[in-house]
Amino acid sequence: MSFDWTPSELDALVNEHPIVLFMKGTPQEPRCGFSNRAATVLSQLGEPFTSVNILTDPRAIPSVCAWADFPTMPQVYIYGELIGGSDIALEMYQSGELQQMIADGRAASE
Prior knowledge:
This protein is of the alpha+beta class. The protein contains 5 helices and 4 strands. It has a 4-stranded mixed beta sheet with strand order 2-1-3-4. The relative contact order is 0.19.
């Protein structure tokens, strides 16, 4: 994926795809432990998700962090809503809250 990293482009991306992960590397080749954890959590859901490797462009990290008003990577979005990073995604998955959020988002979009 090639981006200009504009707010409107980032809005369109997270609103077009039900689950989006901005991460360092790819789910198959994560480049940090936190990105690996987030990709693993999302993979455990059994739902397709879109991942964006923010290491492909030096503008990506500052652009995404400023747009989201969230200072770290990775960032997980569910139906357009930022839920946070890998720790929050893991906690929500373990409690069942993440699965419920996805089911609610799917039902609302049908």
